[in-house]
Structure formats: structure tokens, C-alpha cells
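quick one, two chains, predict together pls
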Amino acid sequence: MNTRPSKLVKGQTGEWEVVIGLEVHAQVLSKSKLFSGASTEFGAEPNSQVSFVDAGMPGMLPVINEKCVEQAVRTGLGLKAKINLFSIFDRKNYFYPDLPQGYQISQYKNPIVGEGEVTIDLKDGESRLVGIERLHLEQDAGKSLHDQNPDSSYVDLNRSGIALMEIVTRPDMRSSEEAAAFLRKLRAIVRYLGTCDGNMDEGSMRADVNVSVRKPGGPLGTRCEIKNVNSMRFIAQAVEYEARRQIDIIEGGGTIRQETRLFDSRLNETRSMRSKEEAHDYRYFPDPDLLPLELDANWVAEIEKSLPELPDAKKARFMGLGLSAYDASVLVAERDLADYYEDLAKGVDAKAAANWLNNEILGRLNRDGLSISQAPVSAAANNAIVAMISDKTISGKIAKDLLDIVWSDGGDPRAIVEARGLRQVTDTGAIDAAIEAVIAANPDKVEDVKAKPKLAAWFVGQVMKQTGGKANPAAVNAALKLRLNLPDEG
Amino acid sequence: MSNSVPLTLAEARDALKARKISSKELTSALVQGIAQSRGLNAFVTETPERALAMAAASDARLAKGEGGALEGLPLAIKDLFCTKGVKTTAGSRILGNFVPPYESTVTQNLWNAGAVMLGKTNLDEFAMGSSNETSAAGPVFNPWRAKNSNANLVPGGSSGGSAAAVAGDLCLAATGTDTGGSIRQPAAVTGIVGIKPTYGRCSRFGIVAFASSLDQAGPMTKTVRDAAILLGSMASVDPKDSTSMDVPVPDYEKQMEGGIKGLRVGIPKEYRIDGVPADIGGLWDKGAAWLKAQGAQIVEVSLPHTKYALPTYYIVAPAECSSNLARYDGVRFGHRTSGSVHDITELYEKSRAEGFGAEVQRRILIGTYVLSAGYYDAYYARAQKLRTLIKRDFDKAFESCDVLLTPTTPGPAFGVGEKTSDPVSMYLNDVFTVTVNLAGLPGLSVPAGLTENGLPLGLQLIGKAFDEGTVLRAGLAIEQAAQFQHKPANWWRAA
């Protein structure tokens, strides 16, 4: 799968390959924190969701939240990863005001989830496999606020102790597009699983990006870690900037220093934070307040049984129904959209349903700035419309008008078709009558069309007008040809 | 009632039940006794009003024939236990005027059983010390003095205030904590009983942490029976402490009875170390003979890794302490420097330099060092391996015996200031006790005799995990044979 050629970047000395690995911090969906009962709700008053444990008060002890462990296991299974039945919580020691204990409880040598993989879908319909190195559970820190007062900094500990999953990939991505595709896919998976809301704006998903460059096929270069890149767009910008910076340094005869850099989205550049030499010595050691985490294999098996169908499986199933790889991957990107599609496609042609969703529904949602879950017309109502198109109760044109009506006024599509007489006319008598009326009113055109058969289209339009758009265009065409003795188009 | 209350916990309990005395009488006498005994510096905080209010409530319950196992019994609490609404110092300046808004599980268990709190006792800073001289509140003096001497002696540590309070009859019993010997060593050198239960027997929730994998709370009492009574109320499984164990708390007072006929008592040969005074070896032999005379079988056992115990302990404990004490940073509570600072690093440095004493700083530095990149494998990782080997030694020894008998300390109480300039000789005080913490086992110190100079010495009984019952039973046998009825001369009470 990874034989796909890399996108290369041109430098003065030839082409370069960009090598990218990600460390994603995904906030676990859970009502309470990793080691305390405090709430995790977003947007509360500062320091209103802080237990004595979260504040690092003397004598307070962490107690593991089983729900968070379950969510990590669920995510690991979704990443097709090895679940480690034995894992250990370690302390990562450093001083910072938003780290009340003076250490972060994390997992170092023995993470809860081991190796796995994610298939990423690229624009051209191709796929690439990205290896997952590990997933571990850890506590989030609080937030330092430096802009509230000229003389002091404030600390908000609401986030302190919230459970995060750190997901570390192999250096398997070769362009910013692939990195963004990975994040999109990871986001889709955790949202399907219900283990993280994937909300980058609220910081529920954050990424550190490791970037290095090398000559194609050469040994890996020295990497730089870019911290806290908070949107898909910034990831692309940060990778592009950083790759160019590294290439320029190497081509200028310099060497890359391993260091941690910060992405400045305002200036669209990365800046050095600290070098490897200045790196913290975190003095990891097993947290003596917590016993090793031992999982029951049966419990893990139960979780595995409860997993929903994930995007890759859904995509394969949709393709089996006749959808293109592209359509299928668009539809499975969000679980809500895929579910909507499945309801919409019930008992009708899969491809027709996908086209209707892509062309009509998504277009209107986009126009109105709505998400699929806010769609004003239900999947069932759309299903009725598509069914009416395919059994020729209404024409495609009427269907679109009908959707507009339901979109703005609501109502049952079938009832509206009956009430407003929108049924497509396939009755040849009615169509013939309309044709006679048009001929009678336009004798000159009849002569013209005999000389120029292309003018038949004008007749079709007139007949459609005469029938209020309800005539079946194919039936009108056939009847006209017969009546005017026109040749078949060749 | 006289201000000296020589009653044991069991005697006072029975007298209260029989309505021969009231908790108020008992408590008032002790409150006054404490006030008259400030020369010992055993208490950091006295809580007389709270004590009298609790006593009154207990008397009301007792009058109705109600009340818990410790109803109306006045206790002293080591100032390492967080007590809701009562200043908790851990013997350090760094906690400033910290008043916990929560109660430790152990003390909550005691109040639920009806006990009365007299106050908070002095201790080595953050429980780091063997002489109670590292306390920010100043040293505690041992009620005992050597024959024909007026020199002040240390009460041992870190639970020195609790030990002095029990030995000086300032309370009926006290709580202590023991990380490397902090209950047993002070108990031994003040002539009282102290038990460090199995790791996980008592909840650590709300106890200011020193070294989490070693810390354990336990009773300090006048008799073995009292230790059994108090332990029964302190122990519990606690959902707030992941390392507490869900093992039912037995009736220790009942388990203590029944004699020791057929009990196999192990004598670890590696505990005969050079430089230990003859008194100690002699007392140890005497102890074995007492047990044998009561029907026990004496067997020699080997704990081959004993010599590595102190170095292992002085890597593991400081490592955990360096991390546990990181939260005292002057940001959220406790002491913050009043000096001018330019940035957060300087705030940390100044607050912590001012707040922590020399011994605590020494251990933070040792701990930081042994966990550092490049040293971790050489120190911390090897110490963990040794710890496993030390545990295994005990498992092996317990295949051929039920309980071990050893001295508690390598010597009696020493002079104030005698060892403060030599940390290593201070650390040697724990040579017989740290192994027990490293292995997580229960260890009991029972007063067994006096030195030629008239200072108390203790013998230690070590048991299998969660077998405190057997330890107490063997301890009772020593206590009955030793007939230790000595009391320190009452030199400290102000009139």
C-alpha cells in the first residue's frame, strides 16, 4: 500500500523527501477526570471544576477512573492495536504553576496500548498505511493565563487532571496533506468510537508534529518537534515552513539541531523553544500511589464486541453497493453523515442516493451553514423523494423543487406531491394533447423543425411548460418524434 | 483527678464503659497535663476546646449506652495527618499556616469510633529523621533521661512527639507513621509499644506523603493490648487510596490472645551486626528465651540481603520524596517567599529554600539525583531490584517460621545534637526497621528492658503480610515476660 511515490520538495541540490510523525493528544470523552471525580465539562468558570486531588493538596491520592481506561482500550481496538493487559502509570516530574502536583501522571515504558495502524485516504482516492507506535493515558495540565493582569499570571485548574490519550505515530507520513489526512481519519475513528469529540477548537485534539527531511530513500534526517499545532490548516502551514527551513539549512551547509519548536500561526513560522541539551530531565519513575493497571482479557473482548462499524469497513461496504472510492470516503468521514446516508439509501439505488446526498443535500447544508445533524429535511423524507424519482412518480426537476419546498416549509414529500399535483405525467393521452396544442399554436415552427431536427428541443420545452413541468421528458421526446416524424439522433 | 493519667487505653475504655470516670474528666486532666508539659515540646498544636467538646459528646453517647470502640478516649495525632479545620504542619515551615479542608481517612476512622483529639504532635520535618530534631517546631525531648544525668535525650523519630506524649502520659495513645522505622524506633527508645502494620492495612489518604510506597500509619501505645485496640479502629480499606487492601479487619484484641505454644520464631542471623552494644544482643537473646519458655520454637533463619537494606531505602525513599514534595512550590498554599522575585523559577527557589529544612533538602537532592537521566539505572532501578530480593528473603524465611524476632534499634536514646552533624550515623538508627518497610510487612516494637544507664530498649517482631494478629500475640508474650513497668521520672512538668 505504501509503494505510492512520495510527494517531493524541490531544493537547490535536488529533490527532498519530507518525513512526518505525529503525537496527538486526544481528550478522553468522560464525565470525570482521570484520577478524580471532578467534572470535565468545557467552558465552566475558572477553577470551578477542581478537586483537592487536581489541586495537588497535601495527602491527596489519585484513583483511576475506569471509564477512561475503557475509552483508551476502545480507541486502541479502533486503531487495530495491541492492548497491553499490564501497564504502568509513571510520574513525569517538572515544575510549572499549572502543574499542581509538580508531576504529570503519564505512562512511559509500559503504555496501555501498543502497536497499531491507520489507513489514510488521500484526495486521489489512494490510501496509505500509517503505523501507530503506542497510545498511553495521561493527565492534562491546567492553564496559565498571562494576559489578565499586568503584574501577575493566573492559573485555571479546570483542565488539570483531565484524561488525555497520547497517540504516537511512526514517521510514516510524507507530506502535509498526508499528515492532515491522518488527523482527519483519526478524528473520524475516535468520533465513531465515542472516545473523543475531536473538537480542535476547544483543544480536545492537539498535535505535536515531528518533521525531518532527507534525500529520497536516504537515511532519516534529524527531526524537530513542533508543539501544539491546533488546526488542520496550521499543520499544513507548519510542515511546509519547517521542511523549507530544514532544506535551506542543509543546502546552505548547515546541520539540523534536534530541538522543540513552537508554531506561530500569526507569523506562519516555527521558532526554537528549547534544544535537546536544554530539554527537561523528567525523572520518570513508576507512580507509587497507583498499582500497575491490569486488565482482564474478557473485559477487553467485551469492549471489542461493542465496537461500532468503523470508517474503513463502512467505506468498503459502501463501495460494495456501487459507490466510488471517493464518494464512499466522503460519506464515511462523519458518522452522522454515514448514518444519514444509510437511512436515505434504504430500498433505493445506492448510487442515486449518494448523488442526491452529495449534490442536493450537502449543497444546501453548505449554503445554509448547517451540519448534517441540523439538516431540516430528514433522511426518511429524502428517501421518499429519491424513491419517487426512481419509480418515475416525479421528475428530477420536480424533485429538486419538492426538496426546496420541504427544506423551507417542512411537510411530507409524498403528501405534497399529491396535494400540489406534482405527479409526473406519463399518460400519453395528456402528453399528446399538449403536443397538439403546441403544434396548433406554432405552425411555422413545425416547418422549421422538419428542416432542423435540433429544434425539437424547443418543442420539448413548450410541452413541458404546457404540462406544468409534470410530463415525463423521455415520454415527451418519444411522442414528439413520432408526431413530427423526426429521425433518431445519431 | 491528678493531671498525670497513667491509665492505658484499655483501662480507660473499661472505666468509661463502667461509668467510673467521664471522658470529660479524663480529657480535662490530659489537657492540663499537656499544658504543663510544654517543656517536652511534644505537641505542635494543642486543641483543648475541640477535645473538651468531643469529650462532652462522647459522654452523652456513653450515658445512652451508645458509642464506638474508642468512645471518649483522648488521643494525640501526629501532625502529618490532615485534620479538617486544624492546622497541619508536617513539621515544616513550607506548609505555613495550612489548614486542611479535609480529614485523613485514618483520623476520620478514629473520630467515627468516638475518639477525642487532644492535639497534633511534633515530628521530624515531613517525617524525615530519627531524632525529631529536624522539625521546624524544634526538637522534642525524651521523657527519659539516663541515670544520674540531666542531659536531654531525643525521643527518636520521626514520630517523636507522639512517642514522648505516650511515654509522658500526656495522652492515652497516639497515631504515628512509619516509612523506615518512624513508629518503632521512637517507641523503642521511649519505652512504649508501636506497630507499623502491613503496607495497605491503613489508608494513606490525607496523610502528608513522604515516600508513598513505604509510608504506613500505625498506633503508638502503652501496651500491646492498646495497640491491638487502636489498630482495629485505624485500619480500613479505602476507595480513596488505591494501595489500601481489601482485607477484612479482624478483632486484633481477640487474635492477640491464646499464647504462643508451638509458634515458630525466626532469628535472622544477619541482624547480628558489628558495633551494636552488648545490651542489645543480650536483650535479644533474653527475648528468644522468654518466647521459648512460653512454648515457642526458636529457629535460625537467613535474610541474606539485609546489608543492602539501608542503601536501598536511602535511594527509594528520597526518590519518592523528591517527587512528592514538588507540590510545595509556594503557588497554591503554604509558604511563599516574601522576598522580591523576577520570575517563577526564582519564586520556587526562594520559597523552597526558605520553607524546607536541611535534612529535607538533602533528601530532595539525593532523590532528584538518583532519578536523573544517566543515573536512574545505576541507582533507582537497582534499588528496586534489591527491594524485590529483600522481599524474597522474607518470603523464604517465613517458610520456616511464623514471626521474626529482632532488636528494634541498634542503641538507646541518644543526646540532643549528638548525631545531627553526621547524617549517616543518624540513618543507621533504622538498620533493623527499614527492611520491614521495604518488604511491606507488619513490625511491632515492644519495650523489653533497660540499658545499664536506665534507658529503655525494644524488641521487634516481624510478621507475614496481614498477619498482625500473630505479631501482636508474640508481642504480648514478650510484654508479659519482660514485665516492663518502668516509668520515666517526671522532671518536665511545670507546677
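DSSP finds 15 helices and 16 strands in chain A.
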